[in-house]
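As a warm-up, study this chain.
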Amino acid sequence: MTTTTAIAKADRRTVSGSTPGAARGPRRPGRIRRIGLPYLLLLPALVLELLVHLVPMVMGILMSFKALTRFSIRDWSAAPWSGWDNYKISVDINAPAGEALLHSFWVTCGFTVLSVGLCWLLGTATAIFLQDTFRGRGVLRTLFLVPYALPVYTAVITWAFMFQHDNGLVNHVLHDQLGLTDKPSFWLIGDNSFIALLTVSVWKGWPFAFLVVMAGLQNIPKELYEAAALDGAGMWQQIRRITLPSLRPVNQVLVLVLFLWTFNDFNTPYVLFGKAAPEAADLISIHVYQTTFATWNFGTGSAMSVLLLLFLLVVTGLYLLLTSRRRKTADV
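Now compare it with the structure written out below.
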């Protein structure tokens, strides 16, 4: 009996001692596979990012240091090296090129602030008011997402026809039907072009804010609103004390995305006004395009693009740093 028990214990020790080693052996390939699988799945996206963004970006930075014009574009690699001359021309506000770029920069800043603010305000207000269940809410949500679902070119071309001076719908309603103006207005030229551009930008941008905020509202517990209502808090107090603080992480990302999209918007002014945007609506994206392809000064245009990239990187970095500090302060 004693011998049998000793043999059984020895067998158990042998099995238990050999099992981890045997288990660790086959696990290594599986572990390596699990570690390498995410990189393998990301490889197509990394290759596309390299080809679509990184390589053109490096080439653009290289072109900004060359005196690249229509005479040297055929063999751009052999164009003479200009150093920092293109950047000096771009930032010299006393010269025509620098003065025009500065004007375009301020127009773009004003346009971005108004567009992002209105998109966020309309999207947030609509999402909050459609939070409660009522008949027809699904239909309204679908209709509000139509501008975001439409192709950009289709939407902007439609607005361009509506802003026509003689037979546009906007002048027909404001002047012929409502009599709000003394005469039909020019919306695609002059100072009114800024209003037209802002209108189109907000119209096609606010449904995205509405969609993001509506998704963020689903994560707010209803018990918070019920407890606030029992304490006597009204609708505006609930929005101020519960809804907006709970949506702060969502709004931080939303505002940043809207800022980057709006500041870099090229399709809207290009389709709305063509190659030559009015002075009042001369966004920096269309201004860089005109400098590059209208005057065929690729070196200066590339330098302006690099400056725009650096500005966006600095603003984005400061914004992320500020929001992260606020988040840490709120957590403490």
